[in-house]
Amino acid sequence: MRRLLVVVAVSSALGVAVPAHADPATNASFINAVTKAGIKFSDDQSAIKAGKTVCALMDLWQAEPDVVNEVTEQNPNIRPDKAELFTVIARTTYCPQYLPPGQ
């Protein structure tokens, strides 16, 4: 049941969050950072969607370790250490309001 609620909440949050961050330059910067980090997705749009999902989860007050776990669960080809890095890249690119103060 918890899983279903998370999926519904993320879907709802993405519906609101995606248009605000649909800037092609931002997306290109994100893809560049993910690629340089050695994180692979089947295509750029999947990576962008996953990155924006990170922010949607944070919008729901999910703690970063929980978000990293969700990234790992939803993307089984990404190791936990890469999921953590992916979460940082996504947060920095798409939702910097969740960066620690001073960064």
Keywords:
single chain; 103 residues; mainly alpha; 5 helices; globular
Measure the end-to-end span: 36 Å
Instruction: Determine the structural class based on helices, strands and strand pairing.
Output: mainly alpha
> What is the makeup of the main sheet?
none
The share of residues in helices is over 70%
Q: Structurally, how many domains make up the residues?
A: 1
The overall pLDDT average reads 83
User: DSSP strand (E) fraction?
Assistant: under 5%
- Give the uncertain stretches in residue-range form: 1-21
Overall morphology: globular
Number of helices: 5
What is the N-to-C succession of helices and strands?
Answer: HHHHH
Count of extended strands: 0
Rg over CA atoms, rounded to whole Å, is 13 Å
Describe the structure.
The chain is mainly α. The protein has one domain (24-96). The chain is built from 5 helices and no strands. It has helices at 2-20, 24-36, 44-59, 64-74, 80-94. It starts with a helix and ends in a 9-residue tail after the last helix.
Secondary structure layout:
Blueprint: H1 2-20, H2 24-36, H3 44-59, H4 64-74, H5 80-94
